[in-house]
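seq:
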Amino acid sequence: MILDPTVIAIPVYFLLIGIELIVHRVQAVKSYRLNDAITNINCGVTSQVTGAFLKVLSIGLYTIIYEKFKIFDLPNSLLVGVLAFIAYDFFYYWAHRMSHEVNLFWGGHSVHHQSEEYNLSVALRQSSTQIIWTFAFYIPMAVVGVHPLLLVTVSGFNLLYQFWIHTESIDKLPKWFEAVFNTPSHHRVHHARNPKYIDKNHAGTFIVWDKLFGTFKAEEERPIYGITKNLDSWNPVWANVAHYADMWGDIRTIPKMKDKIRYIFKKPGWLPDYMGGHRAPQEVDVSSYKKFHTETAAQLNIYVLVQYVLLLGGTSLFLFNLAEMQVMDKVIFAGMIIFSVISFGVLFENRSSGFVVESVRLICITLVALYALGGVNTEPLLIIIAAAFLILFQIWLMLVRKVPLPAKAQLE
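struct:
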């Protein structure tokens, strides 16, 4: 079994997020919103769940190339591991850079940039489709002879490094460190939607790649975070398809087939000259800019938070037991997890259908739990307990539904 280090580190992620949240509350710093933070993590959950299927294909293809075309039999040594980490970071830079410069690839990577906040939960906001467009960048490592297990290991540690740089709690670090490594200051620039910051600082671990290839920008004024066209949704599935939907809308308006194809591989915002040309990002008016936000009743927030903790526990069990699961079981449990994160997003958006969707979800998740416990052979006591929880949660949901909801509001 190839276990990604990022999966093992999940408890540490949540511990550090909790610490940052507490510190910011003590300091009266408003950097977290429940709906935004849960949506960030929901995108990460969705990415891990879909990755259970997509990584089989990407790692599988990498393994085939490694076994059939590798040039060297590299030894299992610390030196090889260090060199593999540096090589991975180099290819990561180019995969990441192209994810900003190729419209189709941006459809995958844009998910990570959609949050208008900048805190440790944003690090977990990962795409479900980016791996489709970027895994090929690492094929040279297979040809050289980097073992698939080592690739997964160094990619995991590369992602682990990037977790801590998603924060405003750390100012600029010593100059020698800022000169070599990616830091919170460098990465804040990367997440900004200010025109002068866009498409800068693509590094994973080593900022030297940006300095070598002309994409480095030092942090000056405080960035405004997000993408140039706000998502305006807490739905993690929509977050993963929104840019592709926009692309499809643009493609339908482009009359020439060659320009339709060019549009797919040009930079985001490109249009043919006869349709107005490239749509450059606009400066952000700080005085009038408002973040997307929806106000929900405190009782609803508590309900979603409890359900979410239960879901995270189930998701962890799913991820740690993937190797022993049948394909159909993976599909069932993955589908239930994705259904759940959609339901939470709909509730946060105060949609009229939200409570109906959540009621159906409670029924479905109870049936899936009974299926996992033994199906038709489930012990009667377990069935009674599951039914009791279902009734309890349905009553709780009904009570929450009766609480008057505040009107949708924008956060300054």
